[in-house]
Amino acid sequence: MLTRELLFALLGTGFTCLATVLGAGMVFFFKKDMSDKTQKIFLGFAAGVMIAASVWSLLLPAMEMAEAQGKSPLVPVGGGFILGGAFLMLLDQLLPHLHIGSTEPEGLPSKLRRTTMIVLAVTLHNIPEGMAVGLAFSVAGREVGHDVLAGAIALAIGMGLQNFPEGAAISLPLRSEGMSKGKSFVYGALSGVVEPVFGLLTVLVAGSVTGIMPWVLSFAAGAMIYVVVEELIPEAHLGEHSHIGTISVMAGFLIMMILDVALG
To answer: With the CA atoms of 221, 226, 227 and 230 taken in that order, what torsion angle do they form, in degrees rounded to the nearest 10?
Structure first.
């Protein structure tokens, strides 16, 4: 049965990874970097998608699973959520990375090249995305109903919609900094590979220990919400009353909700 779950997880995370690769391929068609306005739109959209996904695809199913196991959802869902946020906060403090448009690297001091740290910044928040999609498809692989599979597909589509511009947001700036088109594409594509890797690893862990799925689902939700609050919203400059960024968050949330309802 675990083989089936891993196959489903690979298909889901493979799709989201492919979206990143296709986005990185935009470096072969466009010469200029994204404008600040365009980046705000994409960042806000990504934040909206991730908030909606955290609620409908992770937290609510985690609560339902905990109740089905005869447990109160408070401890596994609340505890997993906190642990997920703490995990991403720890990675944020340790992993050397540099956000696009920033001059000050974060994480531990490092002699890594600027381009490498830019890729690591995006890779950091692709980790919880891979976990989320992998887990959603893993649950669908258990044959628990059409609604579960529909929800997993909606999640993958939502993540894919945000990953496409994300891939371009890496490759185009790298090209602008003088890197060749081929290398810029490879760096952008590699940022998405972490999704199937962490998706499959998470499914293996969740499948090997009975009863921890509510913890793992809420863990992924906590990690995603950390990324939204710590990185996506500040980078979209929403604190400066950016109407474009705010509308983009709402649009991402609404589209994710529509996908979930339409496919369910």
So the answer is: 160
**Residues 212-222, mean pLDDT to the nearest whole number:** 92
Question: What is the C-alpha end-to-end distance of the chain, expressed in Å?
Answer: 24
Rg of the chain on CA atoms, in Å: 18
Q: Show the tokens assigned to 118.
A: 């830019």
**What pLDDT score does 235 carry?**
76
Q: Which residue has the tokens 């906590």?
A: 222
pTM score: 0.86
